[in-house]
Amino acid sequence: MVRAGLTADRLVAAAAELADEVGFDNVSLSALARRFGVRDASLYSHVRSLDDLRARLALRAGGEMIELIANAVAGRAGKDALAAFAGAYREYAHRHPGRYEATRIRLDPALVGDSPAMRRTAEITYGMLRAYGLAEPDLTDAVRLLRSTFHGYCALEATGGFAAPRDPGLSWDKAIEALHMALTHWPREGGGRD
Q1: Distance between CA 13 and CA 146 in Å, rounded?
Q2: What is the structure's pLDDT at 194?
Q3: Which residues of 51-75 are buried (b: 16+ CB within 10 A; e: fewer)?
Q4: Cα angle: 107, vertex 153, 77; to 5 degrees
Q5: What are phi and psi of 108, to 5 degrees?
Q6: Maximum C-alpha span of the chain
Q7: d(CA 54, CA 12)
Q8: Residue 37 CA: distances (Å) to CA of 31, 64, 137, 149
Q9: pLDDT (tens digit, 9 = 90+) per residue, 122-168?
């Protein structure tokens, strides 16, 4: 019998906490069932599988992250918006390492298309980049550059990959300055203005 009050939302919230505690790859239905004091089978009336749970967790984490980013960039443009966006991204990765890792998994395109959080992510990211005068296909290229830079930096930082004595925060600031310069002088498709 399923414990009263157990819902998919409560399971995903508990999975998010568990991911931050033990790492996203260590989230399992068994660990979640133990947390609620139920049998594994009880969870299947709320989630279809571990993959389903992980996809729901990824969407939840993506929504949390974009909410933090949206609040940070509100009312800002250009370099200020880029720095605020980047800062909120890094803050989320630091504060919620397991949830952040969940945002990196590949999701079914149908789930992404139906997700208000994913649509909002695209709107905010592309809106910030349009302030640099970018249009497609340059927007897609710029999004890929930002995502690669932010994720790579956060991943290296999380694993202690920066051994030099210089404060990684100072290097982060330089990286944002370099990205701002790259976006300002973007090599536009078709030889448009520089």
Answers
A1: 28
A2: 45
A3: ebbbbbbbbbbbbbbbebbbebbee
A4: 85
A5: -60, 130
A6: 66
A7: 8
A8: 10, 27, 51, 41
A9: 999 999 999 999 999 999 999 999 999 999 999 999 999 999 999 99
Length of the chain: 194
pTM: 0.90
How far lies 153's CA from each of 46, 89, 90, in Å? Answer: 36, 11, 9
Q: Which two tokens stand for residue 39?
A: 């049998």
C-alpha dihedral sign at 158, 11, 66, 75: negative
Q: How far apart are CA 66 and CA 88, in angstroms?
A: 9
Counting Cα atoms < 13 Å in the Cβ hemisphere of 123 gives: 12
Judge residue 24's burial from the number of C-beta atoms within 10 Å of its C-beta, 0-12 exposed, 13-18 middle, 19 or more buried.
buried
| Residue found by looking up tokens 């395109």 in the block | 109
| Beta carbons of 19 and 27 less than 8 angstroms apart | yes
Cα–Cα distances (Å) from 102 to 84, 120, 131, in that order, read 22, 18, 29
CB 88 within 8 A of CB 69: yes
Contact 135, 128 (CB under 8 A): no
Terminus-to-terminus CA distance in the chain, angstroms?
Answer: 65
Question: Which residue in 172, 155, 140 sits closest to 104, CA to CA?
Answer: 155
**Contact yes or no for 85/72 (Cβ under 8 A):** yes
